[in-house]
Amino acid sequence: MNRINWTGIYFLILAVMSANAVAGLSAKEIMIKNEDARKASEIQSSAVITTGGGGGVERVKQFTWWRKLTADKVRYNTMTRFHSPAEVRGEGILFLEHENDQNDVMMYLPAFKKIRRVESQQQSGSFMGSEFSYADIATPHVEDYKYSLIKEMTCPGLKLKCTVVESTPATDAVKERTGYTKTLSWVRDDNFMSVAAEFYGTEGTLIKKMTAGEITEVDPVQHKWMALHLKIENLKSGRFTVLQFSDVLVNKGIADSIFTQQYLSRVP
Amino acid sequence: MRNLLTYVGFRHLRRKPLRTLLTTLGIAFGVALYLGIRLINESVLNSFQDTIESITGKAKLTVSAGDAGFPEERLEIIRKIKGVKHAVPMVESRAYFVGSLHDGAEKPAETMMILGVDLLQEQSVRTYKTTDEQVIDDPLVFLNQPDSIILTHTFAKAHGLKIDSVFELATSHGKRSFTVRGLLSPEGPAKAYGGAIAIMDIDGARVSFGKEGKTDRIDIVPTEGESPDDLSVRIKSTLGPGYFAERPESQSESMERMVKSFQVMIRFFSTLALLVGVFLVANSVSVSVAERRREIGTLRALGATQKGILALFLGEAACLGFLGSLAGIFMGRALASVLVQFVTRSLTAQLLQKVEVSKIDFTLTSALIGVLVGTLAAFIAAVIPSFRATRIHPVEAMKRTEAAVSQNSRLTRYTPHIGFFLLSFMIVTVITGLDLRFPGLQLINQGASMIGAALLGPALVVRLIRLNMQLYRKFFGVIKTIPRLAQDNLLRSPARTASNITSLMFGLLLVIMIAVVNHSFRTSIEIWLDRTFKADFLVSSNGQITSYQVQPLDESVGFELGKIPGVRTGLNGSAYAVRYIHLQYQGKQIGLKAFDAPDPKLGYFTYDLADQKPEKAVPLLYMGNEPTVMISTNFAAHFNKKTGDFLDVETPSGIIHPKIVAILTDFASPQGVLYIDREQYKKYWKDPLVSAFGVYAQPGVSPDTIRKEIDSRFGATRNIIARSNKEVKISLMSAINQSFTYTRAIEAAALIVGLMGLLNTLLISVMERTRELGTLRAVGMSKAQLIRMILTEATLLGALGAVAATFFGSLIAYLWMTHSLTHTLGWVVNFYFPWSAILSTLLLGVVVSGFAGLYPAWKAAQIPISEALDYE
Prior knowledge:
The complex is a heterodimer of chains A (268) and B (872). With 268 residues, chain A is an alpha+beta fold. Chain A is built from 5 helices and 13 strands.
């Protein structure tokens, strides 16, 4: 009876330590973990993007998506190839992330058999008519922002705990590139994945809201996660964009040749 | 002084409501026309500026190479030049809106500017705004579909179009369908060209408008700290000749330079209307002074100083001027709204490019300027008569003498001499060319010629009355009593006659000058067109072919036309093609016409040569490897060139040095036109497009049959139309008429002010002669006879005033057209006397003056004899 239940104590300490570990993390540390949780080396997936709302027509497009971590293990190269509807079949977008956000974005237009470059300034705007901006699609880098912890609360729509982190651009360049002055992220305490985010514009007004669902551990070995359902809403225009991923393949070997202009202009 | 003005001045104005109203209206009309034209001029310039600023956005330099464009590969070269931060390409094309496919019936062609831009790069230079921030509904579809187009909300609404609507435009490949995939608010680039604009992706625009592989302009944003001027030099030296790297301001300035002379001309006309108003005020104050001699004497006897009297009359005039100006600014604003479309149409016809004004910029400053100009004009007009008022001695003024307005003062005695001097000054400076060396003289000459004619004209009228009497006596014997009395009256007081006729002379002078210019332009162009345009049809896309505002066609259309049975083809098997583009030559915009080689059997009538025989000179244009050119007469005058000289012409392929083989007549551009072989043009400008095809029927083939064939082959599907020779001529003449439409308003306003002036002075004349008229009535003249006498005086004044105006107006217009026109407006135009216009002006003079004489005649007849005899 008097024997101390060391196992119980051990788990109690672990539980307390674990709780303290999340609670004790700085905002930046949470976001580093957030970045790490999403950082699968290679991802290939099918996807459907739906845009609509704001009185506009709802449009659905299907595409395949390849993403591969570059040699610096920080940035990604991404290739997107559209399959439907017919008007966009064969269109491709090659997104090559570089240092200092000097990203190259190239687009292939099969109707003209031409590769077109997207000017960097254009990259703060909407990504191809969706409510995502190029900046939303590019990998956010921890060093680009300053963070502060806002509060802990139950994750919106989930029975899980979340920490709300505020990110503000570290430099004017980042602000200009993203078009946001502040972002609030609801980060799950258990796996550090964001389940919701709010984006604030130049005058501090809330302009967009994002929710992430179907958060799935796509790489159980490396503990990498991915939100298979993303919805972003523009509060001013009432428009929304939904991204639904399926058939996700992780670390199955994606050739580097996919991320080239030659591949971009090669319509399957 | 304030009391004097309040108790004496205003009371007088209230007691003479008709005169007050006439004078105020005279100023109002003058100010209205002056301000209206000023507002239009400002709005046209602002519209140019808006268009250029909207299009250039953040760009500090724009690279271009003329209408034909340049290879798109130049973009990458420019991007690599040190100091270039962003370089964004654009193609521009004017298209014709055919209508919505769902409309059922086709609507008349409506022009719009298509800007083909690289939407993936645009944000570095231009920002497009919509109400919901979403310009393009689906960029992925937009960019990949060549038929994608963005319209302005206004245009879409006006034509019942929305996202995904399909409509048709005339393109270089004929009629094509386009799908609305975006809508713009009228901000940023959408403001340009008055909102008649559509945006396409650059590749789609290239394919649709025959500009594959071409770029019309590249807008450059320099790196921070980079001087645009230095960068311009680097770009020019990298690209070589034929390319221009200009600041947006220079483009705006260049447009301003192009319209400046036109604006000076219409400002001149509008200022004249104000001058008529000035004469009216001067007359009105003179009458007032004469009428109120006793009042002035009384005031002076009661202690009013000379300064007080001066201030009284000047104050009255300024008040009238102020009131007239207030009315004038509102009338001017309304006039501007009506006139602007005529003025812009005229400018469009002259510049061969669309000039659109979306709004009249009526600012507080414009209103204040209107009020200031009107009030000041009235004030200045009153200075001399007001000074006369101060000279009236109290004792003299109290004596019972008849009011004498138009007394033969030293000034009025010498008026004709002053007029003669002013006219002589103008004639000498124009003939000797001094006015061209000292541009300020041109402005002085404008005033000198009009004032000179208006001052000398009345003297001529008096002589004409004398001559008329002498001739009448010689051929018909005794003149009837009433006409004789009327003429005697006019001769007895030349100063009064002069005062009566001056304001009307101004109005009629304007009418004559405008008629001469209009008629000379029309006749010169008509004769030239008859000589040079002999094709049975002119085939082009829908639009205004007479001003080359058509969507250029692919040259393959010419070969298709050549295959129509009965069509006479050129040496290359195609219908005769002509390409018209604008070109920069020594910093000025000129025109370039590239023609296919003519078949010698057909003749060389297209070339209206001034200094060579066509048989000798035309073959020189098409022979040999080295390019040769013909130049228009105005080009020769502007750039001091002659046959045998060489030109340095910048082309997208470098500078060429063509030899001038002849000088010819052409009216396509105010700064001049070059004619070149189209094969050479294609070689150096790399532009195979064609503006129009001349189609000739083979001997014995009915042109109607060919037309039917053209319509059936091209009309419905390609939006290509064939206009007959007669239709083209009618259309061109109608365009010329349209470009002079705005002058009708100027003529009308000047005549109305002239009419009011005459009405005013005739009233004064009746008032001056009250006693005399009473005497005539006392000795037996009936009321009807009195009315007839005054009406005869008025109509005689009008008719002879019109004769004098015809003489002086024609003289001034002749000198202007033969000596200054080429330098002022650009063209070389022969002088043709407008007989029919002269006749109608004479009639107009009689009608206007007869109308103006009605009320004074009636008023004179109403004066009781006893009261008239007692009149002081």
